[in-house]
Amino acid sequence: MERAVLYEELRGLDETRHRFISLASHELRTPAAAVYGAAATLRGRARDLAPEVAEELQKTLYEQSARLAGLIPRSAGSSVPGSGLGLAIARSYALAHGGDLIYDSVSPSGARFEPVLPQPEAAKPTSRIARR
Fold first, then answer.
1. Phi and psi angles of residue 20, each rounded to the nearest 5 degrees, phi first
2. CATH number of 2-98
């Protein structure tokens, strides 16, 4: 019985992980495709474009590049230790189980992240169990 419950929980976690990765991938691909399309058009046809079209493409390049710049440090592209997708995945996992990811600053420079999950009903101590 316990194995079946664990199996179902793992299946649910795997599904949550899959949805998260799909969403993160989409969030990165969308502006990347816009940047690529605008840059390719400007590079290949800049002389043939009306000035307002070229200006609109440059605006798209700037806006979507800024969007990517905002996404990348929060994902796998960051060179700062501990700031990759792992934290987002850990928080998603904790939230999916009714908990959260707690941040604690560690001196002189650093951080500690701790997932806090509610105890299952069966694991909660009862009044009949003596505490030390």
1. -65, -45
2. 1.10.287.130
Q: Is the pTM of this model over 0.85?
A: no
14-38: pLDDT as tens digits = 888 888 888 877 777 788 888 888 8
Q: What is the CA radius of gyration of the chain?
A: 23
What are the tens digits of pLDDT across the range 98-124? 888 888 887 777 778 888 887 766 555
Local structure of 111: helix, strand or coil = strand
Helix (H/G/I), strand (E/B), else coil: 109: coil
Which of 43, 71, 48 has the alpha carbon at shortest distance from 58? 43
Indicate the domain borders of the chain.
2-98
